[in-house]
């Protein structure tokens, strides 16, 4: 039996983590969300499983995360096996580059800060607050869901000028993961950053014709980086491979603190 804390489970990759992991009734899943009532209804309607707890917590709110950790601790006798930092912000500004964003420096600054707040600082709070439980758990695995686009190599190979605040905040997340690993590896905690590949969650669905064109331009850059890229994978398949890697990875196997694709290879797409 294993216990999992996953943040950002209302939809997409996060919901699929909950779905797949809760298939084993011996697992206990704690899904952290911003709208508890809505996600509880969705989980009851679509999964209806008793081993899922939906807990209120915004990843940017350390007090809410502390309360969530108390709830988890009360239900697990003070232990936790896995944390998955999945929640993320990828705003519509992802479709353009610094040339466009620089037209409004204040908005650019706020956009950058908001991406860091959710994608970098959020996981840092999450890991710090739940680490005492992890240290008492058996698996001792802490995972950040990152993205290949945070790797300068991908940006340079495809000249991918888009998704700027998002990529920067995820690159900082990868460094936070390395720092957590440097601190906790000797205590037996595996901290790792995993890219799930491009996943068809609709997270960057475009609404206007103009955004559609910008989306196609980004897709063209992805093809430039990886000519065989055909489009995003099914959420189910991506999550399955992330979980396989997560369960396989060990400190002794060389996975401590690294950023790696779910396929363990490149290209990320
Ligand atoms: N989809 C892809 O192609 C892709 C590729 C590479 C990496 N990733 C990474 O995979 C992860 C999941 O992506 P996705 O496509 O499933 O994203 P998504 O569909 O946009 O879902 C994001 C999730 O994060 C939650 N969230 C956002 N801000 C939050 C906050 N402040 N506090 C708590 N929860 C918050 C959202 O909850 P609400 O419902 O409350 O908004 C939602 O559950 C992300 O880390 C993303 O960066 C995705």
UniProtKB/TrEMBL annotation:
GO MF annotation: an example: oxidoreductase activity, acting on the CH-OH group of donors, NAD or NADP as acceptor
SUPFAM superfamilies reported for this sequence: NAD(P)-binding Rossmann-fold domains (SSF51735)
Protein name in UniProt: Oxidoreductase
């Amino acid at each position: 039996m294993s216990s999992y804390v996953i943040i950002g489970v209302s939809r997409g990759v996060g919901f699929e983590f909950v779905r797949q992991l809760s298939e084993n009734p011996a697992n206990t899943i704690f899904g952290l969300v911003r709208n508890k009532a809505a996600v509880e209804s969705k989980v009851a309607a679509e999964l209806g499983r008793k081993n899922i707890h939906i807990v209120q917590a915004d990843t940017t709110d350390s007090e809410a995360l502390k309360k969530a950790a108390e709830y988890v601790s009360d239900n697990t006798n003070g232990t936790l096996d896995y944390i998955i930092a999945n929640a993320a912000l990828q705003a519509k500004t992802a479709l353009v580059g610094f040339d466009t964003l620089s037209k409004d420096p204040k908005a650019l600054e706020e956009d950058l800060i908001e991406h860091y707040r959710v994608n970098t600082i959020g996981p840092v709070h999450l890991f710090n607050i739940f680490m005492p439980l992890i240290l008492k758990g058996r698996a001792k695995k802490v995972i950040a869901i990152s993205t290949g686009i945070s790797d300068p190599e991908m940006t340079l190979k495809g000249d991918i000028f888009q998704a700027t605040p998002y990529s920067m905040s995820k690159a900082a997340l990868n460094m936070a993961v390395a720092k957590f690993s440097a601190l906790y590896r000797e205590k037996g905690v595996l901290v790792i950053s995993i890219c799930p590949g491009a996943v068809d969650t609709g997270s960057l669905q475009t609404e206007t014709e103009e955004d559609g064109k910008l989306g196609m331009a980004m897709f063209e850059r992805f093809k430039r980086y990886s000519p065989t890229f055909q489009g995003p994978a099914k959420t189910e398949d991506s999550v399955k491979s992330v979980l396989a890697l997560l369960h396989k990875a060990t400190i002794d196997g060389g996975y401590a603190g690294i950023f790696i694709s779910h396929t363990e290879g490149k290209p990320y797409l």
